[in-house]
Design brief:
The structure holds 2 protein chains of 2 kinds. Chain A is mostly beta strands. Chain A is built from 2 helices and 28 strands. Helix content of chain A is about 5%, strand content about 35%. Chain A is globular. In chain B, about 25% of the residues lie in helices and about 20% in strands. In chain B, a hairpin with a 2-residue loop joins strand 3 and strand 4. The radius of gyration of chain B is 12 Å and the shape is globular. The interface between A and B is medium-sized, with 20 and 21 residues.
């Protein structure tokens, strides 16, 4: 496979770290049975539910375009029908289906080709790249749209590369509802600098807009007994880049919590400092919009048969304020016991307000939020279907 | 020919029955796509395979091959076949 010839640029300017003025917020909730939009007031105290949209559809991800504050994209499929992407330019009053949803290239007759089961992850391009979107699919595939999500083209450099295909494995090698490409990150300083993660298949980086890729696995652990040099055995769950310092990334992995400070290419396992009885296994990873030393995780039980519930039935968010040296348990307002849900990798997020608002949706269909960076939690919606993704965004 | 459309696809057709033409099942589905953009990909994947939970019957017989020849008098029924909650 082709290798990068450029190093990640270290000369880029650091973005502003000033808090932005508060604006109207929207929380996009994607579930196993449809999507809901929650409109918040300026104080984030009252929320108006708008939904369901696409009742009965599996919505893996719904995202507001941060470049215009109005356009919504939703990745959808139903139990019967193939996958597609819907687009709304009026905040969900009307939706229009993509003319050409993400789909793998058709193989020559007689060869077994892959088919997209569902689009799992949607990511807008940089602010300067209006109408550019990226999509990650199950099974693992990377796609790009240059027209706002109307038509999508595959990255053959990844989707059809024999080495990548070997690392991706088969559908049986992936997560229960299919192996996924996720955590598509565009460096806010450089459109050609991309990160993607695959469950399974590891973490990969491109500095030429996706033409070539290199693995980014040093320091990451794998399940005991497996060879950490092989991307196939790596299972990154969620990776986030810090908006205030895009040279820093955090990762929640199947095997721990990590931090990476570029230009280093070696991840540091910062989850070792989590309480031993809680561990550092989980799905989501959330970073502070203005403080690269602050991040949040939602641990789950990775014991014995991997129950993937809150550890001991006592859900809690954990925060670090020092880049992972120490962690603080944040559970005020959350159930104190007998709460056996967890939070999936796209189902926890932050807004850009000051103080930062945090949001997460549970596998049991509850939507929780904190207006004070996790110190106190309140439930703002109950009895939704299983929540797959939560995004908070500012309306224009 | 008459094509019966399941409820899951009526967001495209606005009705349970429609007309499409073509010498093969594949051509009939292509005609449906011309009339109702997007409908084919919900039934047929990018490798031209009928999706797992879609069944297509012609005159009461299940058809699995898009090259199946059809006559103008045939009746095509598209069904959704799903179990689970």
């Amino acid at each position: 496979m082709a290798r990068n010839t450029r190093k990640p640029a270290a000369r880029r300017q650091r973005p502003s770290t000033r808090a932005r003025p508060q604006r109207r917020l929207i929380v996009l909730v994607a579930t196993r049975k449809g999507a809901w939009l929650y409109h918040g007031d300026a104080a984030r105290k009252t929320w108006r539910a708008d939904g369901p949209h696409f009742l009965g559809h599996v919505i893996s991800h719904a995202v507001l375009d941060p470049r215009d504050g109005r356009t919504l994209l939703a990745a959808a499929k139903t139990g019967h029908l193939g996958p597609t992407v819907f687009r709304s330019t009026d905040l969900g009053r009307t939706w229009k289906e993509a003319a050409q949803p993400p789909a793998f290239a058709k193989t020559a007759d007689g060869k077994e080709g892959r088919a997209v089961d569902h689009t799992f992850w949607l990511a807008p391009g940089r602010a300067a790249e209006r109408d550019v979107w990226y999509a990650g699919t199950s099974p693992q595939g990377l796609f790009r749209s240059g027209d706002g999500g109307v038509t999508w083209k595959p990255f053959s450099s990844l989707n059809d590369d024999p080495q990548f295909r070997e690392w991706m494995g088969t559908v049986q090698d992936g997560t229960p509802d299919g192996p996924k490409l996720h955590s598509i990150i565009v460096d806010p300083r450089d459109s050609t600098h991309l990160y993607v993660a695959m469950s399974g298949g590891g973490v990969h980086e491109s500095v030429d807009g996706g033409r070539t890729w290199k693995t980014l696995l040093k320091g990451l652990e794998v399940v005991e007994g497996f060879d950490a040099s092989k991307p196939s055995f790596h299972d990154p769950h969620c990776i986030r880049i810090c908006p205030s310092n895009p040279d820093r990334l955090y990762q929640q992995n199947h095997c721990g919590i990590y931090r990476l400070d570029r230009p280093s290419d070696t991840w540091e396992r910062i989850g070792r400092s989590m309480p031993e009885r809680v561990g550092d296994i989980g799905f989501p990873m959330v970073v502070h919009p203005r403080d690269a030393d602050t991040a949040w995780v939602f641990p789950m039980s990775g014991t014995t048969v991997w129950p993937r519930t809150s550890p001991e039935g006592m859900p809690a968010v954990y925060a670090t304020r020092n880049g992972g040296k120490t962690w603080q348990r944040l559970d005020a307002g959350l159930p104190a016991k007998q709460a056996w849900w967890t939070v999936k990798r796209q189902a926890m997020t932050a807004d850009a307000s000051d103080p930062v608002g945090l949001y997460f949706g549970t596998t049991s269909g509850d939507l929780w939020m904190s207006r004070d960076e996790g110190r106190r939690w309140a439930c703002i919606a109950r009895h939704l279907p299983e929540i797959y993704a939560v995004e908070a965004a500012e309306l224009s | 020919m008459k094509v019966c459309v399941p409820s899951a696809l009526r967001s495209y057709t606005d009705r349970g029955e429609t007309e499409a033409s073509g010498p093969t099942l594949g051509e009939v589905l292509a005609d449906l796509e011309r009339q109702y953009p997007g409908i084919r990909f919900r039934m047929i994947d990018e490798q031209d395979r009928i999706r797992r939970h879609i069944r297509i019957f012609v005159n009461g017989e299940q058809v699995r091959d898009l090259s199946q020849p059809l006559n103008a008098s045939d009746e095509v029924i598209i069904l959704q076949a799903l179990s689970g909650g």
